[in-house]
Amino acid sequence: SRTKELKISAECQNHLFIWQAHNALFIICCLLKVFISRMSEEELQLHFTYEEKA
């Protein structure tokens, strides 16, 4: 399972895992910058707020 892989990677200080995590965070950062630059505050709020459906 993925949990077991993460534990092994953390224990071994696997550089590949560190690079994958770094790249994923970088992509998230870039996407957020695009969202922020192109959307209004109201549109952003609609995307990132949770509304419970009755």
Output mean pLDDT.
Answer: 85
Helix percent reads: over 70%
Distance between the termini: 34 Å
Instruction: Provide the β-strand percentage band.
Output: under 5%
The counted number of beta strands is: 0
DSSP helix count?
3
Q: What general form does the structure show? A: elongated
User: From the helix content, strand content and strand pairing, which structural class follows?
Assistant: mainly alpha
**SSE order in H/E notation?**
HHH
Low-confidence stretches: none
Gyration radius, rounded: 17 Å
Report the major sheet. none
Pfam families: Dymeclin
Family: Belongs to the dymeclin family.
Protein name: Dymeclin
Keywords: Lipoprotein, Membrane, Myristate, Transmembrane, Transmembrane helix
Q: What does this protein look like?
A:
The structure is a single chain. The N and C termini lie far apart (34 Å). This protein has a domain at 22-54. The chain contains 3 helices and no strands. With 54 residues, the protein is mainly α. The chain has helices at residues 2-12, 15-38, 41-48. 80% of the residues lie in helices and 0% in strands.
How would you briefly describe this protein structure?
The chain has 54 residues and is an all-alpha fold. It has helices spanning 2-12, 15-38, 41-48. It starts with a helix and ends in a 6-residue tail after the last helix.
List the helices and strands and how they pair.
Blueprint: H1 2-12, H2 15-38, H3 41-48
Task: Give me some keywords for this one.
3 helices, 54 residues, 80% helix, single chain, mainly alpha, membrane
